[in-house]
């Protein structure tokens, strides 16, 4: 399937077919009123790799690097966040109008006809991701095409489940990060198919996290790459979303964790809480 990655439109069409088929088997059941596990969604954004460091063509993932003003500073993530019930429900309805992103999705009519409740949830997850992406990086919501839903990801350090949605950005080239985002980091999908970039990250926890998890350090999978300005490390929930996407769409699996080179990553004491001056979302 690597040849598909060299042709962006072919890759996006293939990904949409795969995620549509797989999406019908996903467990998307959620309780919209649970306060201890609020609905959260992120957009796995696919753009063009033209001009990206080390890649002349093909699709890339569009990531945000979290700023020093928020929790988990320095991490790479996809744009997204928690639900704003009234705004996101309204946006989910608007997205279904003729010519809008949901109406343009080739599989939308089938989903609504055969499983309306799950279609409504996909629309809501998509709306959450689009609203948050506009706030974080000024992504134009009208210029985004839905590719399909991905399996939910349960966060270990926070009481939250993320419902990722893959989306395609065919035209937008420039983004304008807000205070939550240090910079936009493109990652060519072709690079993710290189086994040498996959490492074993030994995460060394600060005291309060050690008490919560009952251990001092842990080996976790990660991926390291150069964005033209320095080394970037992809790990955590975002790593798992990316690897799940690659396995579903391309049948690609990274090397076993135990066979990978080891890198050390001490976790900052304020990693989970953020700086005291930060405004938390």
What this model shows, in words?
The protein is of the alpha+beta class. It has a domain at 2-192: Nucleoside Triphosphate Pyrophosphohydrolase (Alpha-Beta Complex), CATH 3.90.79.10. It is 32% helix and 26% strand. The protein is built from nine helices and twelve strands. The protein has helices spanning 2-5, 8-23, 85-94, 101-104, 108-114, 116-137, 189-192, 207-213, 236-250, and strands spanning 39-48, 59-66, 76-77, 80-82, 145-149, 153-154, 161-168, 181-188, 198-204, 217-226, 231-235, 262-266. The strands form two sheets. Strands 1, 2, 3, 4, 5, 6, 7 and 8 form an eight-stranded mixed β-sheet that branches. It has a four-stranded mixed β-sheet with strand order 11-10-9-12. A hairpin with a 4-residue loop joins strand 10 (217-226) and strand 11. Helix 3 packs across helix 6 (116-137) and helix 5 (108-114) packs across helix 6 (116-137). The radius of gyration is 18 Å and the shape is globular. The model is unreliable at 277-281 (pLDDT under 50).
Terminal Cα separation, in Å? 39 Å
CATH C-level category of the domain at 2-192: Alpha Beta
Percent helix: 25-40%
Low-confidence sequence ranges: 277-281
Q: Mean pLDDT, as a whole number?
A: 89
Q: What class do helices, strands and sheet pairing give?
A: alpha+beta
Let me know the CATH homologous superfamily of the domain at 2-192.
Answer: Nucleoside Triphosphate Pyrophosphohydrolase
| Helix count, DSSP H or I runs of 4 or more residues | 9
Here the CATH topology of the domain at 2-192 equals: Nucleoside Triphosphate Pyrophosphohydrolase
Q: Do you know the CATH architecture of the domain at 2-192?
A: Alpha-Beta Complex
Largest sheet, strands/sense/barrel: 8 strands, mixed
Q: Bin the strand percentage.
A: 25-35%
Count the strands?
A: 12
Shape: globular
How do the helices and strands follow one another from N- to C-terminus?
HHEEEEHHHHEEEEHEHEEHE
Radius of gyration, whole Å = 18 Å
